[in-house]
Amino acid sequence: MREILLVRFGEVFLKGQNRPYFMKKLTNHIKDAVRDVQGRVWMSEGRIYVSDFTDMQECIRRVTKVFGVHSVSPAIEMEKDDFEAVCAQAAKMMEPLTGTFKVLARRSDKRYPLDSPAIMREAGGYILTHVPHLTVDVNNPDHVMMIEMRDHCYLSVERVEGVQGMPMGTNGKACLLLSGGIDSPVAGFMIAKRGVELCCVHYHSFPYTSERAREKVLELARLLSEYCGRMKVYVVPFTEIQMQIHQKCPENYTTLIMRRFMMRIAERLAVQEGAQALITGESIGQVASQTMEALGCTDEVVGMPIFRPCIGMDKSEIVDRAIKIGTFETSSLPYEDCCTVFTPKHPATHPRKDFIRKAETNLDGDALIEAAIAGTEVVEVG
Ligand code: ATP
Ligand code: MG
Fold first, then answer.
1. Could you report the per-residue pLDDT of 116-153, keeping only the tens digit for each?
2. Structural domain boundaries of the chain?
3. Do domains 2-161 and 173-381 have the same CATH topology?
4. What is the pLDDT of residues 369-380, one digit of tens each?
5. Which of 67, 140, 222, 269 is least surrounded, with the fewest CB atoms within 10 Å of its CB?
């Protein structure tokens, strides 16, 4: 007899010919997630199991964060031949609980002498007799004792919800513009959840922004990597570009021009990384650079799609998500980000593309971009 974890995953993406591919990806991501708690991960009869872990709670925490995992149950694996022992174990697991219960049974080993209704009846009766403070409610029970007869017998009561989504890397790759704010980590999470692998770009304005601001962004990337696995963060020196824009372009357009440079550089790095799209944390109307016209001005300079999954969300909704995925606290640390340093007093909210294009002719854009890319530092997180 031993403790293991039963991992359940969504069925939707498991239909058809891609099934083995998705399953293999998912299994490998779970292996990566538990690698330093020594979990052994294996697949059998369309299920994923984890055993031999040093710390079960930590193992559950990690596995429930893997995209594609619907739920995880701590379970007891035991021999199935002695049904009396199975019932005794079920009763032992129910003993600490209060309220109502029912037993569910599944028998994939069709040679097992008891069928599912018999298992439910017998085990339910046994629990009722041996744990008298529990009562049965088949419609809306507080607890469900799940008994599965497979190669072994598996008993589980507790079920921890997983993050759901699709296995990482089954839907291409995208490059996240990661600031130190609340929105961009949430945006990255939402796209990654659909199976999209991430890389990140961060623009750093040293010495206007501190080393600690950079560390904060790397910590945000690390928090995301708990879901998406290991990834690269490109830390791009952005001070020179900002200084030049500040000196040579009309003040009310500086933010937008700066954002256009961010997009251009991100696209270059994305191509280099084999990514097919960019992701930002923008939301309509949140700030001057996120009006409809402003978004049009940033879209104009890149050829690849820009995903903005927070686009229709209120700040409070984005905050709720950030809390849920665990990035809010780090995002709320006070270190300045590069946008706030050069923020104009009266940014254009209805910018004109022809004005911006003209203003940009004051800059040697290509040289600025080349220099920024040449000075880029690549950090691996996760
Ligand atoms: P966030 O909370 O994500 O910082 P925000 O509300 O502060 O967003 P902006 O500062 O206008 O909004 O940035 C909009 C988006 O541009 C961010 O969500 C992010 O994707 C990207 N971005 C902004 N600053 C940076 C930066 N320094 N490095 C990388 N990406 C950035
Ligand atoms: Mg920001």
1. 999 999 999 999 999 999 999 999 999 999 999 999 99
2. 2-161, 173-381
3. no
4. 999 999 999 999
5. 140
| Nearest ligand, CA 185 | 1
Distance 180 CA to ligand 2 centre (A): 6
Ligand 2 center to 338 CA (angstroms): 8
Task: For tokens 């990514």, name the residue.
Answer: 275
Amino acid at the residue 91: A
Atom of ligand 1 nearest to the CA of 287: 11
Crossing angle of the two packed helices 292-299 and 254-273, in degrees rounded to 10: 40
Mark residue 285 as left, alpha or beta (left: phi above 0; alpha: psi -120 to 50; beta: remaining): left
Cβ-contact 350, 293 below 8 angstroms: yes
2-161, what's its fold? VC0802-like (3.30.2130)
CATH number 3.40.50.620 is the correct assignment for the domain at 173-381: yes
- pLDDT tens for residues 89-121? 999 999 999 999 999 999 998 999 999 999 999
Question: Which residues does ligand 1 sit against, CB inside 6 Å?
Answer: 177-179, 181-184, 201-203, 262, 280-282, 286-287, 289, 337-339
Taking the whole predicted model, whether its pTM rises above 0.70 is answered as: yes
Contact 220, 176 (CB under 8 A): no
> Which of 261-274 are b and which e, b meaning 16 or more Cβ less than 10 Å from the residue's Cβ?
bbbbbbbbbbeebe
Rg (CA), the chain: 26
Instruction: Give the Å distance between the CA of 370 and the centre of ligand 2.
Output: 24
Given a contact cutoff of 8 angstroms between Cβ atoms, the answer to whether 319 and 328 are in contact is: yes
**Cα–Cα distance for residue pair 353/349, rounded to 1 Å:** 12
Q: Are 368 and 261 in contact (CB under 8 A)?
A: yes
Buried-exposed string 306-342: b where 16+ CB fall within 10 A, e elsewhere: bbbbbeebeeeebbebbeebebbebbeeeeebbbeeb
